[in-house]
Design brief:
This protein has a 7-stranded parallel beta sheet, with helices on both faces. It has a two-stranded parallel sheet with strand order 7-9. It is of the alpha/beta class and 289 residues long. The relative contact order is 0.15. It is globular, with a radius of gyration of 19 Å. The chain has 2 domains: 153 residues, NAD(P)-binding Rossmann-like Domain (Rossmann fold, 3-Layer(aba) Sandwich); 105 residues, UDP-galactose 4-epimerase, domain 1 (Alpha-Beta Complex), CATH 3.90.25. Helix 2 packs parallel to helix 3 and helix 6 crosses helix 8. It has 8 helices and 11 strands. InterPro entries: NAD(P)-bd_dom_sf (IPR036291). This is NAD-dependent dehydratase. It comes from Kribbella albertanoniae.
């Protein structure tokens, strides 16, 4: 497959490129060339900015995977250029698109956040993160029809990624794992490698690409089991406890993604590999917010 990756040199994007090369795909990267520019020297690289994707008008690909589409303006521009140059468009979206944050078991038909009146489509703020993802999904569906896919994930765990990096670091150094969320807090995540493999599939429409719901206590037990004699768990590292925003978002139905080919490895394997990565001298990146 001729694959175009928008981004591809940090976090989940690195996993996508690694998986694509492993599977023998012909990969082209389009990014600004400022993040990890030495990665993947064997891959064709096109340097450019999302605000001016005109360089993409010189190629054709079977699929584009959009890892860097945060601004609505940027996604609109890439869609216009690639409309007749790609077979399908897979967009990395978020579970943050859902308007209902409390009802458990929502599938992809759940109501989505509205676009705020008067909001700019060329600026990024955390308040606009969810609505921007919704609007990008909508414009891609309008442009590409059934050739568009929106992959909605939450926490993505694994090397190069910040999520649960504090747990991996604590276990690697023999320190206490901390959680400001209570033991009963529900949570869903996905291993970055499993999500990368899923993104390479022939997809259409929206998918909740998340793992099964666990409580924080269940997840902590799985992670602590991968090292001998782990330090006691610290459930109160801060004065005020918090809930991961709106726990309904961590009880989503992932049946459609599983049916389409999402494969999920055990929590223990994710934890063991993350700890080993840190023990090899790597440092998890800081969270984006």
């Amino acid at each position: 497959m001729r694959l175009l990756v928008l981004g591809g040199t940090k976090n989940l994007g690195r996993h996508v490129v690694e998986a694509a090369l492993r599977d023998g795909h012909e990969v082209t990267l389009f990014n600004r060339g400022t993040t990890n520019p030495g990665l993947f020297p064997e891959v064709r690289r096109m340097i450019g900015d999302r605000a001016d994707p005109s360089a993409l008008a010189a190629g054709e690909w079977d699929c584009v995977i959009d890892m860097s589409g945060f601004l609505v303006r940027d996604v609109r521009l890439s869609a216009e250029v690639l409309r007749d140059r790609v077979g399908r468009y897979t967009y990395m979206s978020s579970i943050g698109v859902y308007a209902d944050r409390t009802t458990p078991g929502q599938d992809e038909s759940g109501g989505l956040l509205p676009w705020p009146v008067g909001a700019p489509d060329n600026e990024f703020t955390m308040d606009l993160y969810g609505p921007s993802k919704v609007r990008c999904e909508s414009l891609l569906a309008a442009t590409f029809g059934s050739r568009a896919a929106a992959v909605r994930s939450g926490f993505v765990v694994g090397r190069y990624n910040p999520d649960f990096g504090n747990w991996g670091t604590a276990l690697a150094s023999g320190n206490r794992m901390e959680s400001a969320a209570p033991p009963s807090q529900p949570v869903q995540y996905v291993d970055a490698r499993d999500l990368a493999d899923f993104l390479l599939l022939e997809l259409s429409g929206p998918y909740n690409a998340v793992g099964p719901t666990r409580t924080m206590a269940e997840l902590a037990a799985a992670w602590r089991s991968v090292v001998p004699d782990p330090a006691p768990m610290d459930w109160a590292p801060t004065v005020d406890r918090f809930h991961l925003n709106d726990e309904g978002l961590f009880r989503l139905d992932n049946g459609r993604a599983l049916a389409a080919g999402l494969r999920l490895r055990p929590d223990e394997e994710t934890a063991r590999d993350y700890v080993a990565w840190v023990q090899d001298g790597n440092i998890p990146p800081d969270p984006p917010h």
